[in-house]
Amino acid sequence: MGRVKEEYRSLAGPEKAAILMLALGEEHATKMFSMMDDEEIKEISQTMSSLGTIGSNIVERLFVEFADQLSSTGSLVGSFDTTERLLSKVLSEDRVNGIMEEIRGPAGRTMWDKLNNVNEAVLANYLKNEYPQTVGVVLSKLKPGHSAAVLSLLPENFSMEVIMRMLRMEAVQKEVLDNIEKTLRTEFMSNLARGSRGDNHELMADIFNSLDRQSQDRFLTALEERNRDSAEKIKALMFTFEDLARLDNNGVQTLLRQVEKDKLALALKGSTDQMRDLFFKNMSERAGKMMREDMDAQGPVRLSDVEESQMMIVQLAKELAAQGQIVISEGGGEDEMVY
């Protein structure tokens, strides 16, 4: 017994792993190999090929130790992160991202099952930027109660267009339905899944926004040294299109002289009434009328296009502020901050 104990103690980690995999058999060993990188496979394989004969008492002792260590760790923790790390060992990055976005999204076997579990306000906010015919098809595939809730949250004129399209709707071709499902999966569900991860960067941006400028600089500088990507994300989130409400009238008018009018029309189409009023009150009556006509003429627009235009205007505002042409006041006090 003492000799067995000594022999067992002399085994290194790779040797224990190699013995365990041999004992588990080809089927299980193959699965384990598929989860290893090339260096790990090479090390285990080399060790395995030079093991020679291993007594049953050594194998038994190894399994006992393995079981003891597994039980001593307490309960296993399954999470999105651990699942993603495991999948990344055997699948390409694109496939892992696709699978994780799918399972992070709302529950349901099919796309339509999943949409039935999406909050009606979230779904309505997305669908209002699609064509009425497309929205009609989507709502026709949902449960009546959920469709009714979504329909009630759409703009009145737009919702009537959707209703009329649904009344005239004939059997939808499979190809059309497949294309709609694909768009929903790639544009809506993937963004929804990313959002459901819990955006810690947004939380930190809100906290940083409440700090004075000196503290902001100090924390951001320290964060850049540790994680530049996170620092950049937080800085980007610390100023949004809605923050342009912090401009005074002179600042808005300066911005209006620089911004592309079609981009502004698109940005305002997806903004709040407060933001629209801010810009319209700084335009002449004629310019405001033309801008409203441009917005109406656009019809339904994609949310991604609205956000892109808003980001361009925010970037322009930052550049003007950096040049000293406009002043952006802080949100929490009377002092002003020049970017």
Automatic annotation (TrEMBL):
Q: Name the predominant localization.
A: other
- Domain named Flagellar motor switch protein FliG middle: residues: 122-193
Per UniProt, residues of the Flagellar motor switch protein FliG N-terminal domain are: 11-112
Q: Which InterPro entries match?
A: Flg_Motor_Flig (IPR000090), Flg_Motor_Flig_C (IPR023087), FliG_a-hlx (IPR011002), FliG_M (IPR032779), FliG_N (IPR028263)
Question: What protein family does this chain belong to?
Answer: Belongs to the FliG family.
Listed PANTHER family = FLAGELLAR MOTOR SWITCH PROTEIN FLIG
Query: What is the name attached to this protein's record?
Result: Flagellar motor switch protein FliG
Species whose genome carries this gene: Thalassospira lohafexi
